[in-house]
Amino acid sequence: MKTIKQINEKIKNGDAVIVTAEEMISIVEEEGAEKASETVDVVTTGTFGAMCSSGVFLNFGHSDPPIKMMKTYLNGVEAYSGLAAVDAYLGATQANSDDDIGIDYGGAHVIEDLVAGKEVELEAEGYTTDCYPRKRVSTIITIDDLNQAMLFNPRNCYQSYNSATNSRDEKLYTYMGKLLPEFGNLNYSGAGQLNPMQNDFNTTTKTYNTLGVGTKIFAGGAQGYIAGEGTQHSPAGGFGTLAIQGNLKEMDTKYIRGATIPKYGSTLFMGIGIPIPVLNSEIAQTCAIRDEDIKVPILDYGIQRRDKPTLGVTNYKDLRTGKISMELDISGEKVDKCIRTTSVSSYKTSREIAGELKDWIINKEFFLSDRVAGLNTCAPKPMKADAKLVRDIIKRPPIVAKETISVSEASKILIEKNINHLPIVDENNCIMGIITSWDIAKAMAQSKTTISDIMTKYVVWASPDEPIEMVAKKMSANNISGLPIVDNNKKVLGVISAEDISKLIGHYI
Amino acid sequence: MKKRIFYWISGRNVKKPIVSDIIKTYDVDVTILKAKMEPSEGFLTLELNGNEDNVLNSVEYLKEYGEVEDISQPIQKKEEKCIDCGACIVHCPVGAIKFEEDFSVTFDIDECIGCKTCAKICPTKAIVVYDL
Ligand code: SF4
Ligand code: SF4
Q1: Rounded CA separation A128/A439 (Å)
Q2: Smallest Cβ distance to A344: which of B85, B102, B104?
Q3: What is the DSSP string of A454-509?
Q4: Model ipTM?
Q5: Which of A29-33, A105-109, A384-388, B121-125 has the lowest mean pLDDT?
Q6: Which positions in chain B touch A322 (Cβ < 8 Å)?
Q7: CA angle A413, A418, A419 (to 5 degrees)
């Protein structure tokens, strides 16, 4: 048994043994946890990935005459200033107020530019009071002009994260990056065996051995602190998160980087490292966790619901080889598929962070702190909001027609049933195409008489399990006003129209 | 010898079997890396493989019907911007990007066909595209 105080003494005397979490693996393998806990004093960890829930509190100092800032923009990106007069919080994922720039230069990029010492344009508007008579301010600042630039991330440093693939036949742009159709790739994030929380996690008690409120950490290249558990903290499932703070003025653009995930948004790549004091053999053992020990669920992001189906489980060791093979259920058939894997966080930089933190301690620039409290245990609750699914608004029985009917018969059906979309089906009621009233009008003008000549054969359809928000998105993306609803066997169950949706959610379309 | 080229062909000649001609006449292997045909012109990205004389002769032949441009260095990775995440790797159609032993991400520029997919995917905009 050692104490943090003793370890700090050793650091001061230059006697402490500091290793990275990667180095610890082989030490414990060779010497055993008991011996390793005697020889090693501190294990350093690191992670570097996209941490959307990042941001900075900025204090601009008072203007003359003073202003109470209400709308505040930094290089065109809005910072929330519903705080005291000249304070604002700039979030990493805030898009540029200029639509043409949008997510290409968002909050995260402003944060990086501030850290880089670049000039940033500040524009603010206020409402006037007797103490704050100024209405507008427009000036150029750098980070040195700010009184405080306090990074505060309410949720980052995830202990584990899911990997993402896509079962759909179209590509998806998600916060996990671009997902190619039909399981074309599997994207993962996280430092695995170098992950700070993973190395400190006690799997028996589902709590953290040493980290907690007040633990001093490496935050973006500076020394920061853990402020508490992060939002959506879920240690029971191994999905703990941290809220952290640090002084942006001391950070380094190497470890704090503005980025844009294509068609998703801007985000901050953030480096975090946590030193773990090896107080006993149990902690030594935990710090020896290896990539292959860390399970990574494989989720299908093709199902755009809160609870995405888990297709299997892999681990960081396999993910890092660049491909994994897994058994997939494709249209009711079991298929073995080899999926290429891609990381969306940086293992190389995670290593550098663990290494730099190690150097700081060796050079007596960084001492460990005792936590003042552990992290609360909690389990995140979902939002109370009902999902409306396509199946909830299906009209039965479906109105469909065979390919053999004539154009005038088809037009009669549209008029009599007062509908605009008529799915054309085969003898099993499976979708072959679709006819709209516009197709009929066109057929008349062009004197076409057979259905197969005029029907749309590449049909975009909806499944009964889809949320109507998704259907609305599909309609606007394809510029169409109605979709057939089909089951897994392509059997037509009905039609959903833009009108049905707008009746339901008025403002959605 | 392996040679990669951009090939522009005018509308007059789009119906001529030029590519199959060079395969037959000069005994070169041709991989069509990219092709876009429009009513009045066509654009191809080709990889020619064969003995040096044959490859050069086939290029001369292609020039009779359109314009040939060598693919030199279509893109460049800015080292200071790249964070070695690896997000670009699976999106490269020719496998020109890979993780090294130490998890740094490197590009094999000789393999690159300049499709720009990596540039579009890169979260830090670390890839500069030289438009040809
Ligand atoms: S441009 Fe990028 S993605 Fe395309 S071939 Fe070159 S390296 Fe690969
Ligand atoms: S996606 Fe961009 S930042 Fe990531 S490895 Fe590729 S070039 Fe580097």
Answers
A1: 59
A2: B85
A3: HSBSS---B-TTSBHHHHHHHHHHHT-SEEEEE-TT-BEEEEEEHHHHHHHHGGG-
A4: 0.85
A5: A384-388
A6: 89, 99
A7: 80
